From TrEMBL:
InterPro entries in alphabetical order: AHSA1-like_N, TPR_rpt
TPR repeats: 105-138
Keywords for the protein's UniProt record, in alphabetical order: TPR repeat
Organism in which the protein naturally occurs: Nitzschia inconspicua
GO CC terms of this entry: cytosol
Domain of life: Eukaryota
A GO BP entry: protein folding
Keyword Transport: no
Stretches the record annotates as Disordered: 161-231
Protein name per the record: Activator of Hsp90 ATPase, N-terminal-domain containing protein
Bias kind Low complexity: ranges: 174-215
Limits of the Activator of Hsp90 ATPase AHSA1-like N-terminal domain: 298-443
Molecular function terms from GO: ATPase activator activity; protein-folding chaperone binding
Length: 446
């Protein structure tokens, strides 16, 4: 049984208002893209993968020639496709991200993850190594690359033992048995053919083959309820649970009170999308100007977010270790030159979602107490947003040394300010701010 079509999903989506919008000016297109991105991040946080897919795909059809933004959208779409089990689609989206912006680390990361899901570890390792070249101190990236390297090594060992058979299959070894299984999957992630070769040594004992799942874990809000009621393929096909019973994604039950609150939710044509996006009264209320169906309410908290994120960044410091060429030198943030973006809290069908997207430019300083060393510079963090999980880290761009009284310390600056130490301290400060955001505006304990 095939899953619901994209057209049917769009008809049933709570985001029908933006998915049907057809802006005709550059300004209205830009505002629609921002709205689509905002809702897409909330959908990812809620693990509403189909909604996120529709929103990101719509944004890609609307956006103008902005390579970096297209790279981000394709990277996000790759994440969504992977979680839906569409691994080839995830690979294509990630590949598009790397083509749009070859310096976008997350694009290479997503490509590596998609290739792993397709059981292509050698290619996955190549993609992850390109990401490591761009950001060599990213701990999560290093761990991912090491895991894939182990798969490649196991594959090589298997080739040596089996003379090249089952080339793409990882092997699990034990002292009592060795079992190799190759499974081909179709687009719906359903096994279509299985070939098993088993060789058992006589030891008087038996062993059970084990399997492992390589799944990227994002730090997103939303629970994994109802997993015991579904098979692996059913969430992809669009099932859900209503009143304890499994039913279609399209099933919807509203009591009379809910119907009265929601009102008329029939699709409406947007004759002037530009005007809708610039609805001043909606902006003052802190709600989404696009929301016509009443299924999405959004409160703007951009000023609070900007103030608290600025303070978190300004508090960031790092002291170089005693073993470094400049022991106990201190790196500090002297000034946040710019912090542009927005933040909001959305309530989607009773659940709270945290949406934020900021880019930052700051000035840093490295100095020793004795005054013998003083260096100043600047850097940019272009992507501080909800698609980046806690612990994944934030990319540094436009790193520059503006003044330095000793050129010999430039390698030290690159090691401890640009690629490690201070960079990691910035990551921790931003992650702490994300936790504060969720605590401040999340549901309060009764």
């Amino acid at each position: 049984m095939s899953g619901p079509s994209t057209a049917m999903m769009m008809m049933q989506s709570p985001h029908r208002d933006v998915l049907d919008a057809t802006p005709d000016t550059d300004d209205s297109k830009a505002k629609l893209v921002e709205e689509l991105l905002s809702r897409g991040r909330a959908a990812v946080g809620a693990k509403s993968w189909m909604d996120a897919k529709l929103l990101y795909e719509k944004a890609l059809t609307v956006i103008n020639d902005d390579a970096n933004r297209k790279a981000i959208l394709n990277s996000n779409l790759s994440l969504v496709e992977k979680n839906m089990g569409n691994f080839e689609a995830a690979r294509k989206a990630a590949d598009n991200a790397t083509k749009e912006d070859p310096t976008y680390v997350k694009g290479w990361w997503r490509l590596g993850q998609a290739l792993c899901s397709l059981h292509r570890p050698k290619e996955a390792l190549e993609a992850l190594n390109k990401a490591k070249f761009l950001e060599p101190t990213n701990k999560a990236l290093i761990k991912e690359a090491e895991k894939v390297q182990k798969q490649v090594d196991e594959e090589v060992a298997l080739m040596e033992v089996d003379g090249g058979e089952d080339e793409a299959t990882p092997v699990s070894k034990s002292s009592t048995a060795a079992t190799t299984t190759t499974t081909r999957t179709n687009a719906s992630n359903t096994p279509t053919n299985t070939k098993t070769n088993t060789t058992t040594k006589s030891t008087g004992s038996s062993s059970t083959p084990s399997s492992s799942s390589e799944t990227n874990k994002m730090d997103v809000d939303g629970d994994d309820e109802d997993t015991s009621l579904f098979t692996k393929s059913e969430p992809v096909r669009g099932y859900k649970v209503v009143n304890g019973k499994k039913t279609s994604y399209f099933h919807n039950e509203l009591d009379e009170k809910a119907k009265a609150l929601i009102g008329d939710i029939a699709p409406k044509k947007l004759d002037n999308p530009s005007a809708a996006t610039t609805n001043a009264s909606a902006a003052k209320q802190g709600t989404s100007a696009w929301n016509q169906a009443g299924t999405w309410e959004e409160k703007d908290v951009s000023q609070w977010a900007k103030d608290t994120l600025t303070k978190a960044i300004l508090r960031t410091t790092f002291t170089l270790p005693a073993s470094s060429p400049t022991p106990n030198a201190l790196v500090t943030v002297q000034k946040v030159k710019s912090l542009d973006g927005h933040a909001s809290v959305a309530v989607v069908r009773g659940k709270t979602r945290f949406i934020y997207e900021y880019s930052c430019q700051l000035e840093w300083q490295l100095e020793q107490n004795d005054g013998d060393l003083e260096c100043k510079g600047s850097l940019a963090i272009p992507d501080i947003d909800g698609t980046i999980g806690l612990g994944e880290g934030y990319e540094i761009h436009e790193f520059a040394i503006d003044t330095v009284n000793d050129n010999a310390v430039k390698p030290v600056i690159d090691r401890f300010v640009h690629r490690g130490g201070f960079h990691e301290a910035l990551n921790e400060s931003i992650d702490d701010w994300v936790r504060l955001f969720r605590k401040e505006f999340g549901p309060k304990d009764s």
